[in-house]
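Predict structure. Input: 3-methylmercaptopropionyl-CoA dehydrogenase, 592 residues.
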Amino acid sequence: MYKAPVEEIAFTLKHVAGLGSAIEAGLLGDLGEDLVDAILHEAGRFATDEVAPLAETGDRQGSRLVDGKVVTPDGWRDLYQKWIAGGWNGLTAPEGFGGQGLPHMLNVAALEMWNSGSMAFALCPTLTMGAIEAINSHGSGDLKNTYLSKLVSGEWTGTMNLTEPHAGSDLGVLKTRAERRDDGSYRIFGQKIFITWGEHDAADNIVHLVLARLPDAPAGTRGISLFLVPKFLVNPDGSLGARNDLFAHSLEHKLGIHGSPTCTMIYGDGRFGSEKGAIGWLVGEENKGLACMFTMMNNARLAVGMQGVAVAEAATQKATAYAKERTQGRAPGWTGGGMSPIIEHPDVIRTLLTMKALTQGARAISYACAHAIDMSHRASDRKQHWQERAALLTPIAKSFSTDVGVDVASLGIQVHGGMGFIEETGAARYLRDARIAPIYEGTNGIQAIDLVTRKLTLSNGEQVHAFLAELKQIADEVRHTNLDGFSATANRLDAAITDLGEATDWLLAQVREGKVAEALAGATPYQRMFGLVLTGCYLAKGGFAQALDGGAEGRIALCRFAAENLLSEVTALKDRVINGAASLAAAKAILA
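Output follows.
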């Protein structure tokens, strides 16, 4: 059973990602380490004792559509009520609507633990948190006053409605339409697919944020508007009124996250109400809905990255526990009687250390991204710097972490051997659940496009070069610790950072010269390259930070392992970035 790694999470937040220095600088108000520790321990307890025990039930039963109503797995409705009672939905929400206004770093750390307990369950509050941010940033005063307090408390949940059968990532071709009404409301007509927690029995109302097009809207993405469309209309006194004209037509039959109801939603077919059309209200301005939705999507991209971290952590825990118990063969040097535990075999050791290093690296990257988001709101003298740093890190945190989730879950099955392929052991669920995350919220290929064409060019490349300089400084600090073996690690870090810098400069040159196809041919390898270099640097930063206080042998050993076993891939990835375009063009005809 999963046990939240609270101490490791706290260490990474404080000593690697920047929470400790932000507290010391007074940038987080009266937040202190005692409160941080208390929140993390209680979030970990909830994840370990309340969420994780129901994960298998959710996977086995799934959410079901019964007589037109979605029924969640046994115990999940009660679990969600406990979630509400704990006030977890409002960690970072605005205080004026009942939230706690805490740093984003604490929220993503808690999200990791809840997703490790059950990714399928945690998806519900994750989407609600995104809806809160979008409404708070772009909604009118009336919409905020009507909906935010209930969303912040968790009494109502939120969704994000983008995708249609013919419009996946290309939202410019969506067909859902909106019609104006004289009272300032709109009527929404259309179909949306893959709507996470689009219908369920855990909350009294569901607030849908729906992208749609007005009749006179410009073509493409410039003509998309965002609308708030509740399941139940809300009376002037705040009570629930009539059922709105929308419903879940069906549930998707998915590879994983079975407990999460993924719905096909129908808006405005006349099933409910006196006239056809789901009643909605504009969020932001007409024809500028995509910009509003990106507030929610950017929130969701980091949250999805945390799903990758979460699954990787849970899979690593399960595989490690199994390797300690399972006996098979006799490992080299084994002196005990009978067969040795498989954790004594070199290949299993290497596999488990790879899982652990990738998990800790992805965690640090994601927390560093959350730190940049927090600083963009709180460090007023360097606002642009932190906004750009958050923008640079977001596609890496989303893509690298979710790739890690899949890779680590797959390695976890390998450690289990044939038993990992049997559903009863639980190892397979992690891989099935993790596989959606590289697709969610813009596929990882789209994240690579965004990273190379939009984020590397921030401040004409100065932001990424400043970041690389910071990584070089980490390598220099490691070199001067005078700890056995750490200087060699510094050399490997330095070489990997140099390779990353050369790849970065090459890509920037291609983009500036208009050779976008050449740049994008290497975008995905570059994204992984960046993630691996950050993994090495952040593991080293953690080892260096703990070395100052003593007792860092374990962290330093893991950092050395990562430098020697993971960073060796970086040079090959650089070659793929720089030379991949020619081979891609030459081989393209094979696919015809």
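The chain has three domains: 6-294, 296-442, 444-583.
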